Amino acid sequence: MTSPVAELADDRAERRGLRLFLKRDDLVHPELPGNKWRKLKHNLGPARAHGTLLTFGGAYSNHIRAAAAAGRLYGFRTIGVIRGEEHLPLNDSLACAERMGMRLAYMDRTTYRRKHEPDVVAALRERWGDFYLLPEGGSNAPAVRGCAELGAEVPGFDVVCCPCGTGGTLAGLAAGLAPHQRAIGFSVLKGGFMDGEVERLQRETYGERRGDWRVENGFHFGGYAKRTPELDAFVDDFADRHGLVLDRVYTAKMMFGVLALAERGAFPRGTRILAVITG
User: Fold this and answer.
1) How many Å apart are CA 168 and CA 181, to the nearest integer?
2) Among 3.40.50.1100, 2.60.34.10, 3.40.50.300, 3.30.420.40, what is the CATH number of 44-138?
3) Run of H or E residues at 172
4) For 236-279, what is each residue's pLDDT tens digit?
5) What are the b/e assignments for 73-86, b being 16+ CB within 10 Å?
6) Average pLDDT of the segment spanning 22-33
């Protein structure tokens, strides 16, 4: 499945001589939008073969909801291991996942930080039996290969931008671009570790670093799911200008960063920039 591309008329880019486009990956699938579908696509076969998929996420994780939807649509059981304590009633994200058949379990934050270590995984297998293990955010080698297909869909652009939460989308996107293209990922987390995660995923998938890419670490607005009055004002203004409400966790931070870089003169005149609305 491919997603549509539309040009965005925005004076902040136009006065710098730039053309700005949006790739509406949020429209690619009604229940598995954008990078969720691309990351899950090549993980569906192993999940169906095992019969059960177990994955991790926070209480408001879109990945958890998407994994639950994939299990319902493609016929395998799903288990979501949620960071922290259970809070009732369930929020909308977890309630939706549960309605789609996902079994929810909770893990204290100390253990959660070690969630992929052998003793923690062994304890999960003792409790739940055999399962296909999908990392938090769905980022693994099959996910990177799925996101590389995104890179192959955008041949006419000089710079392709995406938000970064776990690094899988940027790792694949950059690997799938042509040699003359470059990718910029906008980290939604603070800490400056995203470059290492993207490179780790590329090496896990391809055995080497691939593509021309970099991570912008200056537009996280305080960290994951954090927001400021400046970001809120940007989201409201963008909706007024373009009729599109950006997700504050991911795409708003990316678009703020793209336009801020444009106004700083970071792109040569004539550059065609594509921003991926990941959903």
Assistant:
1) 18
2) 3.40.50.1100
3) helix 168-176
4) 999 999 999 999 999 999 999 999 999 999 999 999 999 999 97
5) eeebbbbbbbbeee
6) 89
Triad 92, 97, 243: Cα angle to 5°: 55
Note the pLDDT tens digit of each residue in 49-94: 999 999 999 988 889 999 999 999 999 999 999 999 999 999 998 9
Domain boundaries, the chain: 5-35+141-276, 44-138
From residue 148, alpha-carbon distances to 42, 105, 121, 154, 174 in Å are 12, 32, 29, 11, 7
Q: Is the pLDDT of residue 34 over 80?
A: no
What's the CATH class of domain 5-35+141-276? alpha beta
Is the N-terminal amide bond of 142 cis, ω within 30° of 0? no
At which residue do the structure tokens 């594509």 appear?
Answer: 274
Residue 224 has a pLDDT of 85
| Helix, strand or coil, per DSSP, at residue 256 | helix
Q: Are 144 and 202 in contact (CB under 8 A)?
A: yes
Q: Which pLDDT belongs to residue 49?
A: 97
Q: Phi-psi bin for 10: left (phi > 0), alpha (psi -120 to 50), beta?
A: beta
Domains 5-35+141-276 and 44-138 share a fold: yes
